[in-house]
Amino acid sequence: MFELGVKFLISYFIGSIMGALVVGRLYGGVDIRTMGSGNAGGTNALRTQGMAFAIGVVIIDIGKGVFGAGVVPGLTLPFVPADPEISRTWLTMCCATAAVFGHVWPVYHRFRGGKGAATLVGTLIVVAPEAIVPLLFVWAFMLVFWGYVGLATIMAAVSVPAWIGVAHLPAEQPLFIYTAVMATFVIIWHRANIRRMRDGTEHRNPKLMVFSRHRKTADNE
To answer: Which of 97, 127, 157 represents a domain boundary (last residue)?
Structure first.
């Protein structure tokens, strides 16, 4: 359990490095948590600072997930012997979870982070690379038809455990549990978006809705 606890904390601390704030410092001290939706993620970065800023944020946030899930579990640490009673698979899932939690509740920034989507994708690149294409397809499909980034993110996250449940159970039970738990948290972390969609006040991007009448309406305005 000592190895699990140490590596969980390492992944959490890595996850707590906020891409938005790192890039913001390079841009002269920009803190996007005081702008737009107040979220320290790629979507708010794009809306408030532009494409280059947002790309930098997403690269860092995805990288945290890749490092937390793909590197930390295999680290050889002094004074931290490998625990033979801990499954390497479950250790990886726990470290992946820690990286995402670090992004959402970063210890370095008063526990005010983002919603975890990019970091979650980074962990999936490691633990379920075959799920990335279906996930991106669902995300893009929802976005071009409805224009809500939050809704697209929720549905993409939910699609992963659904796909694993159909295609890979019972062999991939740890992966299914991890993705199901993460999908539940993604819904919780987007509860404000859900409330705004229900109230009709959620930001929508008609220009992305290539198959919708809302795109035509926006083009004619």
So the answer is: 127
Taking the CB of residue 127, how many other CB atoms lie within 10 A of it?
A: 20
**CA–CA separation, 56 and 166 (whole Å):** 35
Angle between helices 191-199 and 173-189 (to 10 degrees): 50
Quote the pTM value: 0.86
Looking at residue 37, the DSSP 8-state letter turns out to be T
Which of 155, 166, 168 lies closest to 127 in space, CA to CA?
168
The sign one gets for the Cα dihedral 79, 107, 114, 50 is negative
Tokens of 126: 């490691």
Q: What are phi and psi of 17, to 5 degrees?
A: -75, 110
Letter string b/e over residues 207-218, b meaning 16 or more CB atoms within 10 A of that residue's CB: ebbeebebbeeb
For residue 206, how many other CB atoms are within 10 A of its CB? 16
**Eight-class DSSP state of 82:** -
Full domain range(s) for residue 202: 130-221
pLDDT < 50 stretches in the chain: 216-221
Predicted local distance difference test score (pLDDT) of residue 218? 43
219: tokens are 């083009």
Alpha carbon 100 to its chain's center: 7
Q: 79 and 54 share a domain?
A: yes
132 in Cβ contact with 126 (< 8 Å)? no
